Amino acid sequence: MAFEGLADRLQSTIKKMTGKGKVSEQDVKEMAREVRLALLEADVNFKVVKDFVKKIKERAVGVEVMESLTPGQQVIKIVKEELTVLMGGEQSKIAVSERPPTVIMMVGLQGAGKTTTSGKLGNLLRKKHNRKPLLVACDVYRPAAVDQLETVGNQLGIPVFSQGTEKNPVDIANEAIEHAKQEHLDYVIIDTAGRLHVDENLMGELTQIKANINPDEIFLVVDAMTGQDAVNVAETFDQTLDITGVVLTKLDGDTRGGAALSIRAVTDKPIKFAGMGEKLDELEAFHPERMASRILG
Ligand code: GDP
């Protein structure tokens, strides 16, 4: 379950506050210390933790009984609100181009879940938003990647535009967009190549695709289970490509939550979706408030 470890720790810290009719400075200090440790243990970025704890301390000192909440309950409310803000506040919507198709470029390292997520996203757009997507195979370095996207498309009954591995990805992407226009498809989801590590060739190719197709969204797919590595990858991709959002995959297996809690603050880019399992319908819009509730119960 996502955030399991963090949820346990924060909830036990917070339970101590619930009954308090009065919150002393000492109480706030202790609570802040434990929140700090819990977040660090969850692999949240060090600076993000520091800023977060400072904020809740400032807000929690001197709370008085307000409306129907005891001071203890108010402190919990503050932590929950700040966790929500940390993960982006409002839910971030997906772009809709005024002139269809809306073009989404999927980028990320190999194994992060890019191909699976491309299929999942097409499925979600079709089922929830009643849109007609097209999947595009632009990872021309690995024949297996093209096959994999075709398999995913077949499973879902979503068309896949592929031209093998001989052509260059910019041409494939452009032709796919033309094809989508002719077929009156609404979304073009481009699955780009990934590498095991960030490298110049990969970034050069992605920059070139971006410059040529001018996508409406560039979603970085990162594996939540890699914690701070995912945050570093996000920073690097964002610096080069100016991404528009993040998809966090494998949140189902991430008991810590460090990436989910750091990426927004570090990159200032929203988390748009979360992968919650291997199945092709296990992609959810990312709701910061619901995530915060998951953590605090
Ligand atoms: P790519 O190399 O980035 O295209 O990655 P793939 O799409 O091939 O995914 C790599 C592995 O991660 C596959 O085994 C997927 O089933 C798995 N995967 C992708 N997303 C999720 C997710 O949200 N949860 C879980 N548990 N597994 C996922």
From TrEMBL:
The catalysed reaction is:
GTP + H2O = GDP + phosphate + H(+)
This molecule's function is given as:
Involved in targeting and insertion of nascent membrane proteins into the cytoplasmic membrane. Binds to the hydrophobic signal sequence of the ribosome-nascent chain (RNC) as it emerges from the ribosomes. The SRP-RNC complex is then targeted to the cytoplasmic membrane where it interacts with the SRP receptor FtsY.
Q: Which family does it belong to?
A: Belongs to the GTP-binding SRP family. SRP54 subfamily.
For this entry, the protein name equals: Signal recognition particle protein
Cellular component per GO? signal recognition particle
Q: Where in the cell is it found?
A: Cytoplasm
Q: What is known of its domains?
A: Composed of three domains: the N-terminal N domain, which is responsible for interactions with the ribosome, the central G domain, which binds GTP, and the C-terminal M domain, which binds the RNA and the signal sequence of the RNC.
What Enzyme Commission number(s) does the record list for this chain? 3.6.5.4
Q: Respond yes or no to whether keyword Lipid biosynthesis is given for this record.
A: no
Tell me where in this chain the SRP54-type proteins GTP-binding domain is found: 270-283
What quaternary structure, including any partners, is listed in this protein's UniProt entry? Part of the signal recognition particle protein translocation system, which is composed of SRP and FtsY.
Q: Which UniProt keywords apply?
A: Cytoplasm, GTP-binding, Hydrolase, Nucleotide-binding, Ribonucleoprotein, RNA-binding, Signal recognition particle
Q: Which residues bind GTP?
A: 108-115, 191-195, 249-252
User: Origin, by domain of life?
Assistant: Bacteria
Q: Does the keyword Zinc apply?
A: no
Task: Name the predominant localization.
Answer: cytoplasm
* One GO MF term attached to the UniProt entry: GTPase activity
One GO BP annotation here? SRP-dependent cotranslational protein targeting to membrane
Taxonomic classification, please?
Answer: Bacteria, Bacillati, Bacillota, Bacilli, Bacillales
